[in-house]
């Protein structure tokens, strides 16, 4: 359909420039739409805060494509339609007795969109969401279909692909047996004590999140998601790092209602209801917000956190909340954790975009000694030249893109600035 009204992203900070938005209902229709388009991008759940999904011509949304969830209990995998959300997939998998290894903080996001941007969950031993991908099915610029799996020597370039290679119609993901999780929130742990033994804190649960505004000596909230049946780690429970367990359901934003968050207070429940921070049936986080995130090698965790605390006078006035999480290394070419275990420094900003964008160069300058890589779907200042230096396979990805899409049908202003401008 021709766009006659404004189409905005989830946060409302971006108006898409495309002249039409198409909703294919079959792979065949999608192939024809892609083949005849001059410029095309895919619009997922609109949870990107920059123009990575935008284009000047044709946007395609896969939400009306047939929903596919095909479980192979022998191969321990599931084949899914790219437009499905993690919330819908998680419910279906749990009902069938299976699980994904991890979830992002929001179950509302589409699988293909999250995978394409290297979005992650949390856990010292767990890779980002894209590491579960074992096969990718694409519609290419000429309308043809392509399937690649881990046997392809370039497979790691196809997964975190920024939408530059084609339209992802289906993905095959690794699955594991379903498991139960208990979530407990602690308030006011000591920064001094946590930073003295950061690895112990991050290893204290299946997933650990530290929420802070970067000011003061205490961490606002620490969320522990513990897999039922795992060996207990009592360091935080016994007060080694200070603080105390919350007595009511908490929200990461101070003063916000914890009812919209995944169940806490140590009540055991399915992974599908606990690994994300927010419930599928509520607006997550603040709604009207902006986001930025940097992935830093784990060996620099303490230095990077200390640097952000020292920059509090610049950051805190514009901040709703920040989060620190841990992610395991992978081999996906454009992943923020390519070749290195890391931490994520996540910033949820007040909806004041000019002011936020004005301080991003300063934050990135402070984090530069730690080889910080920005999340592809959030606000950041780094140029293609700066990003090329951070990704050993950056040039290989450009070559792969140019081979699959020589006319640049899937290129847009974002890719020109952040990838091809190198």
From TrEMBL:
One of its GO terms (cellular component) is membrane. Residues 14-178 form the FAD-binding PCMH-type domain. GO terms for molecular function: D-arabinono-1,4-lactone oxidase activity; FAD binding; L-gulono-1,4-lactone dehydrogenase activity. InterPro entries: ALO_C, FAD-bd_PCMH, FAD-bd_PCMH-like_sf, FAD-bd_PCMH_sub1, FAD-bd_PCMH_sub2, FAD_lactone_oxidase-like, Oxid_FAD_bind_N, Vanillyl_alc_oxidase_C-sub2. Keywords: Oxidoreductase. This is FAD-binding protein. It comes from Glutamicibacter ectropisis.
């Amino acid at each position: 359909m021709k766009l006659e009204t404004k189409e905005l992203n989830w946060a409302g900070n971006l108006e898409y420039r495309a002249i039409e938005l198409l909703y294919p209902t079959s792979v065949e229709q999608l192939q024809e739409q892609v083949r005849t388009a001059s410029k095309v991008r895919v619009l997922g759940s609109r949870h990107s805060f920059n123009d990575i999904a935008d284009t000047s011509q044709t946007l395609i949304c896969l939400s009306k494509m047939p929903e596919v969830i095909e479980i192979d209990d022998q191969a321990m995998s599931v084949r899914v339609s790219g437009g499905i959300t993690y919330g819908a997939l998680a419910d279906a998998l749990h009902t069938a007795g299976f699980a994904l290894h991890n979830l992002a903080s929001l179950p509302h996001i589409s699988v293909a969109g999250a995978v394409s941007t290297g979005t992650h969950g949390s856990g010292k031993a767990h890779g980002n969401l894209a590491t579960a991908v074992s096969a990718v099915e694409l519609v290419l610029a000429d309308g043809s279909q392509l399937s690649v799996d881990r046997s392809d020597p370039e497979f790691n370039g196809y997964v975190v692909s920024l939408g530059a290679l084609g339209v992802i119609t289906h993905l095959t993901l690794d699955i594991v047996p379903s498991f139960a999780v208990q979530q407990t929130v602690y308030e006011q742990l000591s920064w001094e004590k946590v930073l003295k033994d950061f690895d112990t804190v991050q290893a204290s649960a299946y997933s650990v999140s530290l929420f802070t505004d970067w000011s003061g000596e205490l961490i606002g909230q620490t969320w522990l998601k513990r897999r039922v049946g795992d060996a207990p780690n009592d360091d935080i429970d016994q007060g080694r790092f200070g603080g105390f367990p919350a007595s009511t359901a908490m929200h990461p934003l101070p003063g916000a209602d914890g009812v919209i968050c995944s169940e806490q207070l140590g009540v055991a429940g399915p992974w599908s209801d606990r690994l994300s921070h927010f419930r599928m049936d509520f607006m997550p986080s603040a709604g009207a917000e902006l986001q930025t995130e940097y992935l830093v090698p784990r060996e620099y965790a303490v230095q990077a956190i200390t640097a952000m605390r020292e920059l509090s006078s610049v950051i805190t006035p514009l901040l709703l909340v920040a989060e620190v999480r841990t992610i395991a290394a992978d081999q996906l070419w454009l992943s923020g954790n390519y070749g290195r275990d890391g931490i994520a420094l996540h910033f949820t900003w007040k909806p004041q975009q000019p002011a936020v964008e004005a301080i991003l160069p300063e934050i990135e300058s402070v984090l530069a000694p730690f080889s910080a890589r920005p999340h592809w779907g959030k606000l950041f200042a780094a140029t293609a030249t700066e990003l090329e230096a951070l990704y050993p396979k950056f040039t290989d990805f450009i070559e792969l893109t140019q081979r699959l899409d020589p006319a640049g049908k899937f290129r847009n202003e974002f890719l020109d600035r952040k990838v091809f401008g190198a």
